[in-house]
């Protein structure tokens, strides 16, 4: 599986599909696709790490919470990310859990050129599917 993500046509917002050999890799690539809507992630120096652990009742809510938490940290901590490491996505009797790390740096407007503002993650047309060679996540973010 070569393709990490692709952008899809959407009239107002940003819609993408992210892929991974594992569900963890698909969650990493979904986060990467969302940040690439906002900024050229190649300009981010990955020197600061933010641990993220979340719980949700189902896997769609986990994806929504994952993308929302990354946007929250971006806004509140003034951090931009260029790398995402999802250690585990797992299910137990109470729901779904993600254990991950977002890696990046403090926003520096002299080098980080922002393109499109992502306001929020949405449930609009969200899909998480196991496919022949791994996983596919489809998500739409409000811009």
TrEMBL record:
Question: Any idea where the Archease domain is?
Answer: 5-142
Record's keyword terms, sorted: Calcium, Metal-binding, tRNA processing
Q: Which GO terms describe its molecular function?
A: calcium ion binding
Is this entry keyworded Metal-binding? yes
Where along this sequence does the record place binding of Ca(2+)? 13, 142-143
Asked if the Swiss-Prot or TrEMBL record annotates the protein with the keyword Amino-acid biosynthesis, the reply is: no
Which is one Pfam family of this protein? Archease
Q: Where are the transmembrane segments?
A: none
- UniProt-listed GO biological process terms: tRNA splicing, via endonucleolytic cleavage and ligation
Do you know which HAMAP family this protein is assigned to? Archease_arch
NCBIfam families to which the protein is assigned, alphabetical: PRK00407.1
Functional description taken from the UniProt entry: Activates the tRNA-splicing ligase complex by facilitating the enzymatic turnover of catalytic subunit RtcB. Acts by promoting the guanylylation of RtcB, a key intermediate step in tRNA ligation. Can also alter the NTP specificity of RtcB such that ATP, dGTP or ITP is used efficiently.
What the record says about family reads: Belongs to the archease family.
List the protein's name.
Protein archease
Question: What is the species of this protein?
Answer: Methanolobus halotolerans
